[in-house]
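Supplementary material to the annual report.
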Amino acid sequence: MTDRKTNATLFLERRSYRRRRVMDALRLLPIAGLLLWLFPVFWPNAKDGPDAPASVSMSGAVTYVFIVWGVLILSALALWWAFAHRAGEAAEPPERDP
Amino acid sequence: MGKHVLLVEDEINIIEAIQFLLSREGWQVDTHSDGATAVEKVRSMRPDLVVLDYMLPGKNGIDILTELRADPDFHRLPVLMLTARGQSRDRDLAERAGVSRFMTKPFSNTEVVTAVRDLVQLAQ
Amino acid sequence: MISVNQLVAVSLVYVAFLFAIAFFAERASVRGRSGWLRSPLVYTLSLSIYCTAWTFYGAVGYAARSGMEFVTIYLGPSLVMIGWWWVLRKLVRIGRAQRATSVADLISARYGKSNLLAIVVTLMAVVGVTPYIALQLQSVTLSVSIFSDPVQSDGLSQSTATFWVAFGLAIFTVLFGTRNLNANERHDGVVIAIAVEAVVKLIALLAVGIFVVWGIAGGIGPMMDRIDSSPIGEWSMDRSRWVALTALSAAAFLALPRMFQVMVVENEDERHLQIASWAFPLYLMLMSLFVVPIAVIGLDILPAGSNPDLFVLTVPLAEGQGGLATLSFLGGFSSATSMVIVATLALSTMVSNHIVMPIWLSAQAEGAQVSGDVRNVVILARRASILMIIFFGYLYYRLSGGGAALAAIGLISFVGVAQFLPAMLGGIFWRGATRWGALAGLVVGFVVWVFCSLLPSFGPDAVLSATVFDNGIAGMGWLRPQALFGVEGIDPTVHAIVWSLTLNMVAFVCVSLVTFPQPLERLQGAQFVNVFDHSTQARGWDAAPATSEDLMVMAQRILGPTDALSLFRAEAQRQGLSGHLPEPTQGFLQTLERELAGSVGSATAHAMISQLVGGASVSVEDLMAVADESAQILEYSNRLEAKSAELSRTARQLREANEKLTALSVQKDAFLGQISHELRTPMTSIRSFSEILRDTDELEQAEKTKYASIIHGETIRLTRLLDDLLDLSVLENGQVSLNLDTGNLNDVIGQAVLSAGGDRSTRLTVRHEQAQIDRPLTTDLDRLRQVFINLITNAQKYCDAPRPELRIDVVDHGDGLHVVFHDNGTPIPSESRTLIFEKFSRINDKDGSGAGLGLAICREIMARLGGDITHEPRADGNAFIVHLPAQAALAAQ
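Predicted assembly:
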């Protein structure tokens, strides 16, 4: 009986640990997205003048923006799945907001 | 002889019985069956004794008794109260209101007749 | 080539289809089958009203002019959605918890329910969004003009077309936007229609894009080559605009009134937000995927000088794809209409709740105590606001001439509504934000926006003279609309964004720091900022002076009688009280206020309740005056208050229980006395007369017989009394086993009439019209007959009319059958009416033959049979009504 009790607690802790990390990732994802999408600011620009290095081609820029977009969407999807899935699994301690 | 008794009671069969018993003893028995006007009746009739039922339509026996006792004319009027409620609290109430004798129905005939006789004698 | 007439026909069919969808959605939701209407998919699609005609048509034009810059308008919202955990989660939770109806309502609620703030926000929103509505109207007109033959321009004149589009949108919004008063009861019809429109515009843009990439360019590879060789083939980005526009679109996404409407007000389930966190960025990505290819091909194949804003239409037309162009037109049409509908809905809620209703209420002398149903006024105000806002949009379109000035309004409008953001975010994350701070920020931001963004958009010498542009107001060089404080060389849009938001925030923060919030504001602030962990209720009502009746009367007028009644009854039940009037506890007042806020906005709701309750949270204010600043003390005092309220409620309940027990004990004493009296009285006669018979010798035979028959009669009376008592006790203890049987109601009545009339010679005439229809029923027929016999014998005994008469009627009633026993005797006096069903109550019982248990037994029997028995006085007598439950009647069929 004592054994079962200990096991259950361990299991719960492990699960709520995972949940916390999913929440961390949820918080970090938009920041990552923001940084990735701000990155084009550092690209050489056609307006910089004749001395500037050759600027990025439009097709490359389009591809970059949309690949970042796709990765963000897929990550958000994965995180949502992890979040909803775990939340629905069992009764857990109520979430704590920082 | 010729003592005057007022019987305040609303059950016809009981009226019939008591009337029979007391008139056989030589009393003059008048009856009244409405609680609300019972005090008026006593005032106008001035009986030597009142046999009063506890539960009466209009006004109950305790209230009638209290009202009578408040009148100095009837301060010493013998009142025999009959009740069918059979609760000890009622006896207390009646005694506090100044009843002369308290009897629970069903009574024995002898008891009633004796009580009436004793009360009238005491009052004289 | 498709003619304008065909296009109009297609649009009309499409509009009719939308009306039908909205109508059926409303119907389904009324019937409670709205599950599928409220799926995460529909929620995500409804968010797509972010993509207006400005983005549908304009994005391609934007790309043709400025390359990838257009995408910033989508990047901001994508980041906000992906980062839902940070802001949206809290915003949606607060919006739902406070039942906020609009951005204005949310801001006003946060800052102590200040209606001044609500009015400022509403006016700003109207000024900021109305031009945007005009832009949508323009886009529809412009797209129609593409299809019209330039030679014969007989078709529709542009302004006429715009008028009819505006008219149709107004009708739709009034029809489906104001069906329910309660803004939080959500608009299923509207939401489903805009979800359908979202699908249409996505499919339209994807179809054009796929046609362009694979139909014209010949695949992805060749497309990429054409992009690189096009005029926009090089990365040429104004860096400040890239950053500023991404931030601006994110801000506008949060602050736009129409986005608040679909994101918060129409939100059904917070989990939908989690799904939309990836699904909506996906939608945005798909919407922008083909923008650059379409722009590049348009620049390539169309003659120079064609309007790039209409490439989405003109490219398919140029390629002879009439069907595709029509689909594309429907996409643009959808974008425009869905935006106008939701924006108008959101604005009209604000205008009616924060401007029209307060004015109307204060115009009423009695304030909240007005007579009549306020709901009609609210709905009327909302409808009028809708018409007014669409009319403003139309007017703006006509006055501005529909020219290029309008095209720029999209971003300008964004900057305008973004001014709400500091007050909103500050309000939900910073407890120190105050009403005056919010007001200062809003006003400063608004003024800067008007000066730097709105007025210059009309061009030099339109509203602001060229001199002001060059030299500033009154020659003050630091007051130039595009170079505030002498900072020159910034892109005008970025300039407006940076200065308006910066000054807005500075004013907001500084004024907040130096002003002291009112108690209500602080409490609301705590509730907003700590929405996830607040369990104690913050704001307090000193509820003593408010009576539940007053509150009920007010709630009925705003929520409608049914909703109000069920709200009050549920609360009464929760408090463990019978009846429908709960104690006006703090908790209940808050619930009520929030319900009302859903209809008329929080500031108005607060004002109405405070009028009835008399002074807002006086006790809290007193506490605050002496208490320390810290939130702990505040919350502690709240908890104390809640506890003392709880205690006094418990005490009241105990007192109630005690009163009930005392009443029960008195009843029991009276009952015992009654029983004793009923038993002893006949026994007295029996004893007395039997003693007379025993002891008296000289009795005559007649006397003996008389006394013996008295004894006999009294014995029978005793027996009957005992029977009744036993019957009643069995019934009351629920030990009775019902003898269910199926029979005919008419037969039962007939038998009862026979057996009641059989043994007595009475003068009572019983009329029982045998109904033609059989009325089968399943119940305990013997018991039912007993009830009927009792009622008939009662009439025999007590009916004192000269020609006593009893009429027995059977009446069908919604919830079963009513058997009415109607006599023509003297009506029972009203003071006795409540007593007749009590045990031992005898009204006018002259001969004393009844024990007064008959009707009590009848009532018990009917309760056992699932029915009831009641008495109604009639003009010409008494009616005893036996209610038979529907299932007894139905079960037999």
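The first helix of chain C runs from residue 4 to 30.
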